[in-house]
Amino acid sequence: MNFFGFTPSYFKYSESMFKEFLQQNQENLKVEFYVPFVVNTLVSEGKIRLKVLSSNTEWFGITYLEDKPFVEEKLRDLIKEGVYPEGLWSI
């Protein structure tokens, strides 16, 4: 899984790319604007630098509605293990 943290300068580049993407895909409501592709393009053009950090932690996320039950179960497990507090969502 990718997890990006951006400085403000990134957004001036991605905003213009997103506008172009919207123009080219007005009729295709299912097309996706992939952030990793934007990052790769900007790195290869020398416009931004990328620092990769690694982790041994298992990552999971929700992309599709079908992912929700799995993520809910994983979060319950992490709460039971004490990784997250019992009232995680009430904080």
Describe the structure.
- The protein has helices spanning 8-24, 35-44, 68-80.
- It is mostly helical.
- It has two domains: 1-55, no CATH class; 60-91, no CATH class.
- The longest helix is centred in the N-terminal third of the chain and has 17 residues, at 8-24.
- The model has no long low-confidence stretch (mean pLDDT 90).
Secondary-structure blueprint:
Layout: H1 8-24, H2 35-44, H3 68-80
Distance between the termini: 26 Å
The secondary-structure element order is: HHH
Number of helices: 3
Mean pLDDT: 90
Supply the helix-strand structural class. Answer: mainly alpha
What Rg do the Cα atoms give? 18 Å
Note the beta-strand portion. under 5%
The stretches of 5 or more residues where confidence is low (pLDDT under 50) are none
In short:
The chain has 91 residues and is an all-alpha fold. It has three helices and no strands. 0% of the residues are buried.
Essential attributes:
2 domains, mainly alpha, 91 residues, 0% strand
